[in-house]
Amino acid sequence: MTTDPLPTVEVETGPAPSYSVIWMHGLGADGNDFVPVVERFGLEGTPVRFVFPHAPMRPVTINEGYVMRAWYDITYENLSLKEDEKGVRESQEAMEVLIAREQARGIAPDHIVLAGFSQGGAIALQTGLRHRERLAGILALSAYLPLPDTVEQERAKANLQIPVFMGHGSEDPIVPPKLAQASCSRLLTLGYPVEWHEYHMPHSVCEEEVADIGLWLMRIVQG
């Protein structure tokens, strides 16, 4: 297992934060991508540390092997075909290192939210459902459930009731809404309390979604 944490960008909404949100970016972006959104969540006065890791650089098959920041390789436009299980699990391990680092900094596991957009959201689901200690929640935006056939066997008892927020664009050409809806249905069938939010947008984030995320996060951090 990787022992060195990935490089990160951090933003704190107040002194001495008691909650952490580890937020993973999408394919080709980096940890700076969602930093400007933090101030729009309405968390002023509620100390939360946002940790935005940079994914490793790797060749991405669907982009002609171009090397970019990616949590795992993508081979086909149909994201459910020939998944890069090795890459997914390596990124899961990297998130476990960051979770452990937050714990070492005084944040309890059940005060840690895993979040992400697109690929990052997939890794948030992959990691959060399998983490052995209770986490605060999973936020998956424009994402889907990777390695769906392994979830039931590998999921952790501690997080069987973890709150999950899934937000998706009805016009998303990258992660088809049907794939995300199927992922949501799979999680609901397994008994997870998933909130599904659909927005009239492409593969992106809109103001309505940002407002909904802020309300969801506020519920999490206020218990």
Describe the structure.
There is one protein chain. By secondary structure, this protein is of the alpha/beta class. It has five helices and nine strands. The protein has one domain: 3-Layer(aba) Sandwich (Rossmann fold), CATH 3.40.50.1820. The strands form two sheets. A seven-stranded mixed β-sheet has the order 1-3-2-6-7-8-9, with helices on both faces. Strands 4-5 form a two-stranded antiparallel ribbon. The model has no long low-confidence stretch (mean pLDDT 95).
Helix content: 25-40%
Report the span from N to C terminus.
33 Å
Query: Quick one: overall form?
Result: globular
Q: Spatial order of the strands in the main sheet? A: 1-3-2-6-7-8-9
- From N to C, what is the helix and strand string? EEEEEHEHEHEHEH
Individual helix count? 5
Radius of gyration: 16 Å
Number of domains: 1
Count of DSSP E strands?
A: 9
* Major sheet details: 7 strands, mixed
CATH superfamily: Alpha/Beta hydrolase fold, catalytic domain
Name the assembly state.
Answer: single chain
CATH top level? Alpha Beta
CATH architecture field: 3-Layer(aba) Sandwich
Q: Report mean pLDDT, rounded to a whole number.
A: 95
What portion of residues belong to β-strands? 15-25%
Q: Given the helix and strand composition, which structural class is it?
A: alpha/beta
Q: pLDDT under 50 segments (min length 5)? A: none
CATH topology: Rossmann fold
